[in-house]
TrEMBL record:
Keywords: Hydrolase. Belongs to the 4-hydroxybenzoyl-CoA thioesterase family. This is Thioesterase domain-containing protein. The keyword Transcription does not apply. PANTHER family: 4-HYDROXYBENZOYL-COA THIOESTERASE FAMILY MEMBER, NOVEL THIOESTERASE SUPERFAMILY DOMAIN AND SAPOSIN A-TYPE DOMAIN CONTAINING PROTEIN (0610012H03RIK). It comes from Adineta ricciae. The keyword Cell division does not apply. It comes from the Eukaryota. InterPro entries: 4-hydroxybenzoyl-CoA_TE (IPR050563), HotDog_dom_sf (IPR029069). It holds the Pfam family 4HBT_2.
């Protein structure tokens, strides 16, 4: 009984910790369904000689938005729905640095009624089979005018589902 009073309030935190630590399971390139290459820039490096953590967030945002625009026909300035980021994360496994080409891979972990969980693997050079970092975020799609959640439907949902990863890592 006492254990329940201690564990229950921390359950969501413990559950989240498990999901974050399992990101290392998603380091394999084979899990990702859509890729783009990104050239690192001199200014991406920090004083320690590797890409600064803020740049990883830019890469993650870039691949998600490129996919939404190219494959889901999202028009950021005109579409009736817009995506709000409600949570984000990134776990780093090995450093990347300029000059190199980053291959970012995208998969969808979950599609809800109005939300999407994206995951991105950051691979240094095209030969890398293990991600240097794994990150992502959750979008909640809302009506542009009212800012209230708006269901994802039609071709938009179909295109998102085309990169849904339903395979759990071993």
């Amino acid at each position: 009984m006492t254990l329940c009073r201690v564990v229950r309030p921390c359950y969501q935190i413990l559950k989240r910790e498990k999901s974050i630590s399992s990101l290392s399971d998603y380091r394999d390139r084979s899990f990702y369904k859509y890729f783009i290459d990104i050239q690192t820039r001199w200014r991406d490096n920090d004083i320690y000689g590797h890409v600064n953590n803020v740049v990883y967030g830019e890469w993650i945002d870039t691949i998600v938005n490129k996919y939404l625009i190219e494959r889901c026909s999202l028009e950021p300035l005109q579409s009736p729905s817009i995506g709000f980021v409600v949570s984000s994360y990134c776990q780093y496994f090995s450093p990347t640095s300029y000059p190199s080409i980053i291959s970012a891979g995208l998969l969808i972990k979950k599609i809800g009624k109005s939300s999407v969980d994206y995951q991105v693997g950051i691979f240094e050079d095209n030969q890398a089979l293990k991600a240097a970092a794994v990150g992502g975020f959750t979008h909640v799609f809302v009506d542009r005018a009212t800012r209230r959640p708006r269901p994802i439907d039609g071709q938009f949902r179909v295109q998102l589902a085309s990169i849904l990863n339903e395979i759990e890592p071993k």
